[in-house]
Recover the amino acids of this structure.
């Protein structure tokens, strides 16, 4: 398996993106496809929800994910839309909550760039 290291040197908000080879839970990153979304490890507090959820997460699913993440790490990044430097989570609510409950500071994200119009269109 090829090793991939992401190198970014700029600062976003109050946190710095640093070279990483694996997520905070030890799962190595794969090389992103050309022109596809970017895979980054983001602090949980930097990810917002664009809409209020109409239902709560399934506690059993969150518990199962917590156990899985502790044993083998996060296998699938959550989906995040970046609009003007702000990150909005739109898929992966159970995985996000599992990371919160485990006390992990960051989560691996598949980031797509969008506009404010894109965000409004999701309502």
């Amino acid at each position: 398996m090829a090793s991939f290291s992401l190198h970014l040197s700029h600062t976003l908000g109050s946190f710095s993106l640093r070279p990483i080879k694996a997520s905070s839970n030890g799962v190595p990153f794969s090389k992103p496809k050309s022109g596809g979304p970017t895979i980054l490890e983001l602090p949980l507090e930097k990810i917002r929800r664009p809409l209020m959820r109409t239902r709560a997460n399934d506690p059993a699913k969150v518990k199962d994910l917590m156990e899985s993440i502790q044993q083998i790490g996060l296998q699938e990044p959550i989906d995040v839309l970046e609009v003007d430097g702000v990150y909005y989570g739109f898929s992966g609510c159970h995985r996000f909550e599992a990371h919160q409950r485990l006390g992990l500071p960051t989560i691996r994200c598949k980031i797509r760039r969008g506009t404010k119009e894109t965000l409004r269109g999701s309502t």
The first helix runs from residue 59 to 72. The longest strand covers residues 106-113.
